[in-house]
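User: C-alpha cells for this one?
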Amino acid sequence: MAEVRGPRVGLYPGTFDPVTNGHLDIIARAARMLDRLVVGVATNVGKTPLFGIEERVELVRAETEVIARRAGSVIEVRSFASLLIDFARELGAFVIVRGLRAVSDFDYEFQMAGMNARLDPEIETVFLMASERHQFISSRLVKEVALLGGDIASFVPPLTLERTLGRVRG
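Assistant:
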C-alpha cells in the first residue's frame, strides 16, 4: 500500500529587505513544485533593515499574490524570529528552499544546510539556482544603488520600487 502524504509544504526564508525580482523568481519556481509555500520573513537582529518587519511582510504578500494565482499554489507570507528549523517544524514544512546566485553563496548555504540537517534530518534543504538575469541582484546592492541615487527599476517589482524610493529619498 502506498504511503499517504499530506500537502507538500515548503519554506523560503529571508529578510527580503527589499524583496527583489530575484526573490520573486525563486518564489514562482518553488511554488510550482509545492502545494503550499510559506515565505518566511526573518526579523534578523544582526541587520539594520530599510523596512520594518510588518512592511516587509506586506510588500512580499502584495508582490506574490499574482504568482500564487498563476501557479495554482498557496503562498503564505509570515514573519518569524525563531530558529529557522523550529519555524519549519511549526509550519509542517518538509523542505527549506534556498536560492543560490553565485559560488560565493554556496559556502554559507552549504554550512546552513548541514546544520539544519543535523537539527532535523527529516527536513530537506533544496537549492534553486538564480535565473541568469537575476544572478547579480541582492537586497544589499539594491539598497546601496538606491541610496546613491541609481536606477533600481529593473531589480525590484513596482510597489517595492515605489516604497524603496520613498524611503531613501523621502
